[in-house]
Design brief:
The protein is mostly helical. Helices cover about 50% and strands about 5% of the residues. The chain has a two-stranded antiparallel sheet.
Length: about 100
């Protein structure tokens, strides 16, 4: 199963919307359920870890992890846009910004 969804995910060691992802959750299931679970994940073009993470976040925060990531990204883009309107472009000189 290599055809995962294209939603931006934050990997180990990178801060997620609520902080660094450091805690691991594990469980054991029977082999029949495992095979059906993997088939389900493949059918929706996802992977077990993504779905388990989304389930935990939905249960606790009422939003999937992917929703939280997208909201954080949108919020950061809005902040950058607002700052640009207030103070103008703040690109690095090597990017063609502020020239002296």
């Amino acid at each position: 199963m290599t055809d995962y969804d294209d939603t931006p995910m934050l990997a180990r060691g990178i801060a997620g919307p609520l902080g660094k992802l450091t805690e691991e959750q594990k469980t054991k299931i029977d082999s029949i359920t495992q095979e059906l679970w993997l088939q389900y994940c493949a059918s929706i073009r996802s992977n077990p870890a993504t779905l388990i993470r989304d389930f935990i976040y939905m249960t606790v925060h009422k939003k999937t992890y992917r929703q939280l990531v997208m909201e954080k990204t949108a919020h950061e883009a809005q902040c950058i846009e607002a700052l640009t309107k207030l103070i103008g472009s703040f690109e690095a000189p090597e990017s063609g910004g502020a020239r002296g």
